[in-house]
Amino acid sequence: MSTKPHLYIIAAMSENQVIGQDNRLPWHLPDEWVHFRKVTDGKPFIQGRKSFEAADALHSSYKNVVLSRNKNLESFDKTERADDLNEGIALLKDENEVFVLGGASVFEQALPLVEKLYLTIVHTTIEGDAYFPKLDWDEWELISSEFHDKDERHAYSFSMNLYARKEA
């Protein structure tokens, strides 16, 4: 019997759905990083090549799957390459929980498959060139939300939200 892992998206987006600019995050939110590490610790990641190679990329200390058709992609410790999302999920079929880290096109492909969204809303509108896909909010239920005000270390306030897909 083949099993499939529980698939989750973890991302941060502005109120106008920006997730990136020039292949970087358009903000620096240290406490959100702490939250990210706590949620994803010891879990495998799936992400696109550009997200994996970004200057501020996040890599799992456990296992990474990079989506790229480039068979000559530089290989790293604890990292495997897959041609597409389905192949990436198949590589992680024995895992319980898998986090999808983006970018935009990977989020779009994964969205119909994921059970939970760990979605931080950064309370600003900002210029960017990568956007989180449009969500049908009727399909999602807010499970928890933790608000963080702006302070000397955080230029923007943000809410770390967890959404679960509603039962059909």
From TrEMBL:
<keyword id="KW-0560">Oxidoreductase</keyword>
<dbReference type="InterPro" id="IPR024072">
    <property type="entry name" value="DHFR-like_dom_sf"/>
</dbReference>
<dbReference type="InterPro" id="IPR017925">
    <property type="entry name" value="DHFR_CS"/>
</dbReference>
<comment type="function">
    <text>Key enzyme in folate metabolism. Catalyzes an essential reaction for de novo glycine and purine synthesis, and for DNA precursor synthesis.</text>
</comment>
<comment type="similarity">
    <text>Belongs to the dihydrofolate reductase family.</text>
</comment>
<dbReference type="InterPro" id="IPR012259">
    <property type="entry name" value="DHFR"/>
</dbReference>
<keyword id="KW-0554">One-carbon metabolism</keyword>
<protein>
    <recommendedName>
        <fullName>Dihydrofolate reductase</fullName>
        <ecNumber>1.5.1.3</ecNumber>
    </recommendedName>
</protein>
<feature type="domain" description="DHFR">
    <location>
        <begin position="6"/>
        <end position="165"/>
    </location>
</feature>
<keyword id="KW-0521">NADP</keyword>
<dbReference type="Pfam" id="PF00186">
    <property type="entry name" value="DHFR_1"/>
</dbReference>
<dbReference type="InterPro" id="IPR001796">
    <property type="entry name" value="DHFR_dom"/>
</dbReference>
<comment type="pathway">
    <text>Cofactor biosynthesis; tetrahydrofolate biosynthesis; 5,6,7,8-tetrahydrofolate from 7,8-dihydrofolate: step 1/1.</text>
</comment>
